[in-house]
Write a structure and sequence with these properties.
By secondary structure, the protein is an alpha/beta fold. Helices cover 38% and strands 13% of the residues. The chain has helices at residues 21-32, 48-56, 71-85, 108-113, 118-128, 138-148; strands at 12-16, 36-41, 61-65, 88-93. The structure holds nicotinamide-adenine-dinucleotide (NAD).
C-alpha cells in the first residue's frame, strides 16, 4: 500500500487574485508543493513579490493581467498558461474584494466604498467563531493543496469548510 501524495510536481496551475492575501499565499503554496504557477490579477506590478517567491522555490511563474470576470481575458490567460507552462491541471479562484482594515488605518478611497460599521461587524462575527478568530492566509494553503492533489482523488465537487467551526454540521 502506498501513501497518497500531496505533491503537485511539474503540473501547471493558475491562481486568480494572486496579488492579494489568500491568492498570493496559495500561489506560493502551490509552488512549494512543486507546481508551476500562472498568477492572474488585474495588473501585473502587485504580483511581482508572488512571482519572485515562486521563482525562488525553483518553479516557473507567469504574471498575467486579466479581469477574472471577463471570459475573453481569462481565455487569453489560460491560453498563455498552456503555451508557456503546459497543460493546465489546477485552477484556484481567489479573486475578490476584501479590503477590511481597522478604521484608523483605512485609506479614504476604501473608507468611501464601505459602510463604517463593517470592521466592527467582522470583529463581532469573529468572536462567535468556535476557534475565536478569523483565519490566517497560511491556513488556506493546506486545504487547497489537499483538494488539488492526488490525496483527494475521489473527491469531486466537495465543499470543504475552512471556517474555524463557524458552520457546525
Ligand atoms: N480574508 C478572509 O478572511 C476571507 C474570508 C472569506 C472570504 N474571503 C473572500 O476571499 C476573496 C479573497 O480574499 P483576500 O483576503 O485574499 O482579498 P484581497 O483583497 O487581499 O485579494 C483579492 C485579490 O483579488 C484581485 N481581484 C479583485 N477583483 C479581480 C478581478 N475581477 N480579476 C482579477 N483579480 C481581481 C485583487 O486585485 C486582489 O489582489 C475575497 O472575495 C474575500 O471576500 C476572504
Amino acid at each position: 500500500m502506498t501513501s497518497p501524495s500531496f505533491r503537485l510536481d511539474g503540473a501547471a496551475a493558475l491562481v486568480t487574485g494572486a496579488a492579494g492575501g489568500i491568492g498570493a499565499r496559495v500561489a506560493i503554496g502551490l509552488a512549494e508543493f512543486g507546481a508551476d504557477v500562472a498568477c492572474v490579477d488585474l495588473t501585473t506590478d502587485p504580483m511581482a513579490p508572488t512571482v519572485a517567491a515562486i521563482e525562488r522555490l525553483g518553479r516557473r511563474a507567469l504574471a498575467l493581467p486579466a479581469d477574472a470576470s471577463d471570459p475573453g481575458q481569462m481565455g487569453e490567460a489560460v491560453a498563455r498558461t498552456v503555451a508557456e507552462l503546459g497543460p493546465l491541471r489546477h485552477a484556484v479562484n481567489c479573486a475578490g474584494i476584501h479590503d477590511n482594515a481597522p478604521t484608523e488605518t483605512m485609506s479614504l478611497a476604501v473608507w468611501q466604498r464601505k459602510h463604517p460599521d463593517v470592521w466592527e461587524h467582522v470583529q463581532a462575527y469573529a468572536k462567535d467563531i468556535p476557534l475565536g478568530r478569523l483565519a490566517e492566509t497560511e491556513e488556506l494553503v493546506g486545504p487547497v493543496i489537499f483538494l488539488l492533489s492526488d490525496a483527494a482523488s475521489y473527491c469531486t465537487g466537495a465543499n470543504l469548510m475552512v471556517d474555524g467551526g463557524a458552520v457546525c454540521w
